[in-house]
Amino acid sequence: MRQTSQISVTIGISSCLLGRRVRYDGGHKREPLITDHLDRMVNWVPICPEMEMGLGTPREPMRLVAGEAGGSPRLITNQRQRDVTSGMERFIKDQLKTLQRAPVDGYIFKKKSPSCGVAGIPLYALGEDEPVGETSGLFAAAFMKRFPYVPVIEEDTLRLPEQRSVFLQQVAGVARWHAFLKEEPSHHRELGRFHSTNKWILLSHSFHHYAELERIAADAEDGRRLFQEALKAYESVYLKTIRIPTTPCKHADVLTHLAGYLKHDLNLQDKEELFNSIAGYRQGELPWSVPAALLRHHFRRHAHPLADEQTYLQPLPIEWWVRSFV
Questions:
Q1: 313 in helix, strand or coil?
Q2: Helix 207-221 and helix 227-241, axial crossing angle in degrees, nearest 10
Q3: CB 3.0–4.6 Å: which of 79, 190, 201, 259 could bond 185 by disulfide?
Q4: Which pTM does this prediction carry?
Q5: Do 190 and 229 share a domain, yes or no?
């Protein structure tokens, strides 16, 4: 079966969530789920905007203040009312350039941070103590605008199994695409190979979108589209596809299709065991790993070229982890 071990997953993260003492009070916000579980499966890109713009720690806490005439929020210190927005903007400009050159596959942001919060950050009027609205942290907002296809999440949402599953499977999809682009593809055959090897993963997200990707790849192969044009079109639809959540029902359909490749190879007892395991997964009685392990076992004994090239049964470590629970 196709190996995916050479594909690494890189996730940007607010440094404090890894236990680094970068908070305004000299502390951290270590998240055990991240450091105890995800740490062994992910390459981290830790970033603390306040520290990296030179504010140090401990430091005066800050808040976001509404800009004049509806302008962008300003980052203001609480006590001295010092405006440090320009320093944050310089950091953001430089950091986004760095992330453009070395992209991340996802980002875990610190909730409630005026620089890193994804949403729900209190917005104040200058000199007032009661919020007048809500906004996003300055760095998080700029990141999401520059990289709209990169999945983002806050640490409290990451604790929710269903949301964690969606996020990490999206991250894995982006990682595969980034790995493909690093190979500098220049021919339609390379795009066709990427499409065919990821067929069942894409189908677990959306049959409709898979069919659209199939048309784009076929148009490139038949010469109806120039390669670079087809690559751009494929990327756009692919990144939309992996943002559509998978479900146990969709995965069970994929597992059933894969089992169909073995219909002439298995005896009645093995067939019954395999299809019962898929039914058990569909009904929530078994984890994905049970029917997947059976399929991997049978395909080792009865090799099939269409199944052998697929990445679906060779998931990245984070995919294997989340599919074992959801």
A1: coil
A2: 170
A3: 190
A4: 0.92
A5: yes
The token pair at 135 is 């906004």
Cβ–Cβ under 8 Å, residues 233 and 216: yes
Query: How many CB atoms lie under 10 A from the CB of residue 223?
Result: 9
Residue 167 and residue 138 in one domain: no
Neighbouring-strand partners of residue 135: 121
Same domain? 280 vs 225 = no
Instruction: List the structure tokens of 150.
Output: 């990169």
| Contact status, residue 106 vs residue 170, Cβ threshold 8 Å | yes
Token reading at 275: 């299809």
Q: Which residues neighbour 226 within 8 Å (Cβ) at sequence distance 6 or greater? A: none
> Which residues span the domain enclosing 303?
248-323
Q: Which tens digit of pLDDT belongs to each residue from 144-177?
A: 999 999 999 999 999 999 899 999 999 999 999 9
- End residue of a domain, out of 99, 123, 157: 157
Joined together, the tokens standing for residue 91 give 């950091």
Separation CA 296–CA 290 (nearest Å): 10
